[in-house]
Protein: SHSP domain-containing protein
Organism: Compostibacter hankyongensis
Amino acid sequence: MGYRTYACGPRAPYGRFRGRRFSVTPPLNIEETETAYHLTVYAPVLRKENISVSTQSDVLYIRYKAEEKDTAQFIYKEYTGGFERSIDLKGKVDTSGIEASYEDGVLRIVLPKTSAAGRPSQDVPVA
């Protein structure tokens, strides 16, 4: 028995049903360097003005609010929903220095590390 790929539904690779609407969350990569974390969100065909990146209570929020379209005349309806991703920063990021850019369908976010996050680990002797 081979592996089956589902185009939609609860077993879809990047989506799931929420009631009657199909929700898609784009894939996200996180790369760590000595000075920062680099997030890459692969989200083609999105409008830059509808993307929101914000922080609140040490959590990074990436949101996309899609425009509602009247698609009654179309036979095929493209995905027009929005999404939200949240990432706990755990005090390791200097939130005042966060930078974001969206180009060619790729959202790139640079999260500079705090000085505490760059400290090497240490062993603590147990007495």
Summary: Residues 1-22 have pLDDT under 50 and may be disordered. Residues 44 and 126 are 52 Å apart (CA to CA). The domain at 28-68+78-112 is CATH 2.60.40.790 (Immunoglobulin-like). The radius of gyration is 19 Å.
